[in-house]
Amino acid sequence: METKLLSANGRDLKTAAEIITGGGTVIFPTETVYGLGADALNPEAVRKIFKAKGRPGDNPLIVHVHDIKQVDTVAEEVPEKAKMLMEHFWPGPLTVILKRRDSVPDEVTAGLKTVGVRMPSDRTALEFLKLTGRPVAAPSANLSGKPSPTSFKHCVEDMSGRVDAIIDGGDCAVGVESTVIDMTASPVIYRPGDITAGMIEDVLKEKVTLHDSVADGETPKSPGLKYKHYSPAAEVVILKGSVDEVIDCVNRQSVSCGIIVFDQMLETVKNGLSRGRVIKTLGDRKSPRDAEANLFRVLRDMDEMGVRVIFAPEIPDNDKWAAVRNRLYRAAGNRVASASEFEFKSAHEKPKRFLFVCTGNTCRSPMAEGLFNEICRRRGIAAASASAGLSVAPGSVLSENSLSAMKRENIDISGHVPTALSLDMLKEFDVVLTMSSSHKQMLKMILSGNSELSEKVFTLGEYSGLGIEISDPYGGDISVYESCLKEIKKCVAAIADKLSYDKV
Ligand code: TXA
Ligand code: MG
């Protein structure tokens, strides 16, 4: 498909609006990030957005309007408090989630009963939206998973040949996506942005909850929460430590690296870095607004320079910095390391050694170990596992029912001796998989001062992508053990699939 590159003048905006009314796709600037728009009431046009971005179909889109009255075309009702927010913050970087009208296609809301609506403040955006005369559905205009585009150049790089037109509106003033707030019940922020919880509380005179991550086993209220976001091709690591430790750390690594700093550290770090290291600043350390405006561009610039790992500074855990912290820590997959110790090892390399953990190491984790090793052996996967318990009674033995259930799978685990989990074991294994979330919580608590070990811990359900909990069969009859084994098998097989993916 040929992509028209348009300017922000009146004639070009009219062309862009005609593309929308004709069922096409247009990338347009907003004050936050560029959006990839289509007519929100035309399902076929909306499907083109998902195709262009490679976006999962279960992640809903934000509908953009050019005045408050237009909200009624997509929302069933607008609660008084939602109206207060719109009147106060619109046009501006705030998305309000409301009950949707039935006429809004499922493609826009991903089948949810709600719809997110926003009126951007960017002049070009408003003029373009007005000319279309329609509500325009638009996600950020990046390829799915990449950092959102904050300049015309980013959009051209990601989307040339994938959309009908791109409007050049210069650089985005805010630079991170809008704050997303659910106003269908008590206010909840799903995504922090330039408009902070504090600013919203001042208007509503009411406490606002921030809910921008998903707990284990929870179904996310905002589907976007479950996806990895904002990731550059390089791996991002947040470094803790003094300026000297950070400089040493960057110089010590044998892979190409870049470092993100604030202006206040720029000169010192520049002077201390070895040649070939890339350095970029987020701006003034005291200004979250600077960091918002620069973050996505800096991540993209680092990729362009081909670095393998990007080191980034810690970001304060408070309301004003919530938007920057949320984006940067998600780009890092929450990988925080101590500068004095860190040695780069790619998180993308496939793990080889797995440790299964339950309470007593007499039923669940030995069954997981036996199954995993057998599946790997049968399928020629170069991985192995062991198991251990968080609280192993002295002299305890493998449960008879586990032994029998495994026998029916033709796997003999009679040689297993229950083993207590130790620090050495945690160091030795690449991934530690617990049977339930309570095991994981306990382990994370024990390891709270050691991010490198703590990062290896997941629940079996979580790591396999199946999201299930493996409950304790202790005290049950053989059928309880067999169904427990069945659940474990599903998870372990899914992990083996991932490990053997390259070979298929
Ligand atoms: O600043 C912005 O909001 C930009 C510009 C283009 O307006 N748009 C944007 O859209 O960031 P997108 O699709 O990249 O992110 C929308 C987020 C997603 O995380 C999605 O899950 C959430 O908003 N969302 C949209 N509708 C929702 C709904 N009805 N309920 C819960 N979450 C919703
Ligand atoms: Mg996005």
UniProtKB/TrEMBL annotation:
Cellular component terms per the entry's GO annotation: cytoplasm
Major localisation: cytoplasm
Subcellular localization, as worded in the UniProt entry: Cytoplasm
Catalyzed chemical reaction(s): L-threonine + hydrogencarbonate + ATP = L-threonylcarbamoyladenylate + diphosphate + H2O
Active site: C358, R364, D472
SUPFAM superfamilies noted in UniProt: Phosphotyrosine protein phosphatases I (SSF52788), YrdC/RibB (SSF55821)
Cited PROSITE patterns: YRDC
CDD domains assigned to the protein according to its UniProt record, in alphabetical order: LMWPAP (cd16344)
Name listed for the protein in its UniProt record: L-threonylcarbamoyladenylate synthase
